[in-house]
């Protein structure tokens, strides 16, 4: 039964005459269920990943909503040139890199320090409780967190009440309505939300360190801090490197969900980052081609950064992403 | 044990300071949320005077009653529940199915398939080309826009694959001898022994579905298809208190304010996740470890 259907399938195929193909078709036929399962995934990726990649060509065309992509006239690099000459360029770059670099400098080491310190807690119950509690904010959506922040930072909010009581300020400030506070709010709230969650991966790496190393160090008379510095930290260096590569690769990715919730007209000069600009020009202003060009430029630079960071860490300590 | 005996004064001081620091971090984590909770459970007009920090001054459930009586909010909640349940089911089944096929060494074309997938992790079409695709697929204003474009993730596939590789081959062999095809093996043999990774991905995707407001915001116009997060986004970010007031059920408006209704909606929206995640904690920590080893 099985053998006969195999033969029909092979004789139907155009290459059946060539002997070399036979074993391949037989092999594929034998794993037809597996192939269908795999190809459904490939089909999904072609539709939802590769068709939009093809759609990027509108960055080099003058696309409008009425025509199809292939009908739209080519304009070469016009949209890229327009972006590079746009007044918004400087602001967008400053905001994107400013927020990301501060996040990298402040936000990247904090979960590592937190994981190292939490690992020193002896009581298992206390340790688990701290973990469960600090994971909590990760599960809040940025919309809900935006609501919490709006409540805290409003004219009548807690922050103003405390600062007024301490005589630090003499009139309430609308923090979200002023550009100069925006970066601080963005960075602080991001750390608040993700500190515990980002530490999971380091805690997992720490738990993989062999206890024998610590025992040997204890016998050699090493103290606690020496063990942290000479055993724990070097042992998780690989994990730190990988996450650092990813963080550098993502330096142009602002936290879009977060900024979209917290930005408004009044703080626009500090909240206009590349992703917001792409969204604003593309979906709100309908400049599809221009927005796609800006997005493409960003993606290409991000990919270059990722590859660069990867080769640097590869040279430095022999760990790499690819 | 050895280190216990050797503990110096400095180390003891460190331990105390460390414990205090950890408690402080827990306080900073919980208090902002607690503040919202006590204010939401306070009488709305009284809460406007401010000064409620630790406990409700005039306990009231009116705002919560209003949330549950609001047709708009309940419809949005229903959309969120539906998209989360269906979205998780489809995402987990579809991604794990593809991952199982990809994890089998003998799969012909496996290398090519992996390259096709890996590229998607590093490069994408971006906002507008994706928007145009969704429009051409007639998914605008269609509930399926929450499900189909989120049905698969190559990153999750890698996590599934590294779990599947650890499954002893003997299990599959036994099923094969019984004449089961690969799909049946996947469904009846692989999935039941893969519950830790299934729970992890289900939680991650569930949180994504539950919290995502962007999809509902750009692809959906019909208010009856709008999830609760999109509804809240319009209230919070665009300070559209009109939306909140229009969502208020008639007759109870005296005892609630748009602010109290907002806080109560935020709590009702968040509570389900907060209740669920501690129970799944042991799974997602494990899932993270798999992901970090082979990510």
From TrEMBL, chain A:
Residue span(s) of domain ABC transmembrane type-1: 93-309
Location of the protein in the cell: Cell membrane; Membrane
Membrane topology classification: Multi-pass membrane protein
Single GO cellular component term: plasma membrane
Pfam families in alphabetical order: BPD_transp_1 (PF00528)
Record field: transmembrane: 36-60, 97-118, 139-159, 195-216, 228-252, 288-309
Main location (coarse class): membrane
Keyword hit for Transmembrane: yes
GO biological process, one term: transmembrane transport
Highest taxon of source: Bacteria
Record keywords, A-Z: Membrane, Transmembrane, Transmembrane helix, Transport
Family: Belongs to the binding-protein-dependent transport system permease family.
Protein name stated in the entry: Sugar ABC transporter permease
UniProtKB/TrEMBL annotation, chain B:
Membrane topology, record value: Multi-pass membrane protein
Subcellular location: Cell membrane
Example GO biological process: transmembrane transport
Domain ABC transmembrane type-1: 77-280
Predominant place of localization: membrane
One Pfam short name: BPD_transp_1
UniProt keywords, alphabetically: Cell membrane, Membrane, Transmembrane, Transmembrane helix, Transport
Gene Ontology CC terms, in alphabetical order: plasma membrane
Xref: InterPro entries: MetI-like (IPR000515), MetI-like_sf (IPR035906)
Bilayer-spanning residue ranges: 12-34, 73-100, 112-134, 146-164, 185-208, 263-280
Family note: Belongs to the binding-protein-dependent transport system permease family.
Record protein name field: Carbohydrate ABC transporter permease
Species of provenance: Paenibacillus agri
């Amino acid at each position: 039964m099985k053998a006969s259907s195999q033969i029909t399938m092979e004789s139907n195929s155009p290459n059946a005459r060539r002997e070399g193909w036979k074993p391949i078709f037989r092999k594929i036929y034998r794993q037809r269920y597996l192939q269908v399962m795999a190809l459904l995934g490939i089909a999904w990726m072609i539709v939802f990943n590769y068709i939009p990649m093809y759609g990027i060509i509108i960055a080099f065309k003058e696309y409008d909503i009425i025509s199809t992509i292939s009908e739209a006239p080519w304009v070469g690099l016009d949209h890229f040139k327009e972006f590079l000459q746009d007044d918004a360029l400087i602001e967008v770059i400053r905001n994107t890199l400013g927020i990301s670099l501060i996040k990298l400098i402040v936000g990247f080491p904090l979960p590592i320090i937190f994981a190292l310190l939490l690992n020193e807690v002896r009581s298992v119950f206390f340790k688990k409780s701290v973990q469960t509690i600090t994971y909590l904010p990760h599960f809040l959506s940025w919309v809900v967190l935006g609501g919490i922040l709006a409540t805290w930072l409003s004219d009548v909010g807690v922050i103003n009440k405390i600062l007024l009581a301490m005589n630090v300020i003499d009139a309430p400030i609308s923090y979200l309505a002023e550009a100069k506070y925006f970066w601080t709010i963005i960075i602080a709230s991001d750390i608040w939300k993700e500190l515990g969650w980002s530490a999971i991966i380091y805690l997992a790496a720490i738990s993989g360190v062999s206890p024998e190393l610590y025992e040997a160090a204890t016998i050699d008379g090493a103290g606690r801090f020496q063990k942290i510095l000479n055993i724990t930290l070097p042992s998780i260096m690989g994990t730190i490197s990988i996450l650092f590569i990813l963080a550098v690769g993502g330096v142009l990715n602002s936290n879009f969900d977060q900024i979209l919730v917290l930005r408004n007209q009044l703080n626009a000069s500090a909240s206009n980052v590349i992703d917001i600009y792409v969204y604003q020009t593309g979906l709100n202003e309908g400049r599809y081609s221009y927005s796609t060009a800006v997005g493409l430029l960003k993606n290409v630079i991000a990919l270059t950064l990722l590859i660069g960071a990867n080769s640097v860490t590869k040279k430095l300590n022999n760990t790499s992403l690819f | 044990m050895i280190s216990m005996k050797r503990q110096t004064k400095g180390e003891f001081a460190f331990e105390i300071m460390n414990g205090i620091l950890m408690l402080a971090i827990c306080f900073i984590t919980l208090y902002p949320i607690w503040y919202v909770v006590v204010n939401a459970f306070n009488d709305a007009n009284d809460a406007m005077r401010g000064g409620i920090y630790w406990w409700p001054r005039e306990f009231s459930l009116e705002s919560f009653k209003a949330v549950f009586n609001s047709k708009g909010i309940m419809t949005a909640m229903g959309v969120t529940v539906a998209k989360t349940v269906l979205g998780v089911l489809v995402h987990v089944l579809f991604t794990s199915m593809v991952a199982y096929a990809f994890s089998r060494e003998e799969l012909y074309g496996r290398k090519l398939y992996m390259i096709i997938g890996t590229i998607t992790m590093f490069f994408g079409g971006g906002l507008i080309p994706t928007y145009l695709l969704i429009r051409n697929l007639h998914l605008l204003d269609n509930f399926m826009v929450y499900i189909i474009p989120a049905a698969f993730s190559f990153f999750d596939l890698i996590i599934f694959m590294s779990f599947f590789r650890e499954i002893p081959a003997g299990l599959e062999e036994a099923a094969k001898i019984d004449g089961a095809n690969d799909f049946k093996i996947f469904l009846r043999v692989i999935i039941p022994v893969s519950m830790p990774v299934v729970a992890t991905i289900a939680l991650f995707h569930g949180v994504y579905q539950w919290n995502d407001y962007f999809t509902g915001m750009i692809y959906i116009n019909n208010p009856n298809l709008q999830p609760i997060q999109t509804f809240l986004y319009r209230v919070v970010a665009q300070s559209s208190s009109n939306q909140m007031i229009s969502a208020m059920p008639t007759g109870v408006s005296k005892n609630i304010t748009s602010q109290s209704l907002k806080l109560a909606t935020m709590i009702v929206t968040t509570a389900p996740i907060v209740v669920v995640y501690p129970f799944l904690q042991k799974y997602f920590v494990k899932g993270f470890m798999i992901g970090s080893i082979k990510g």
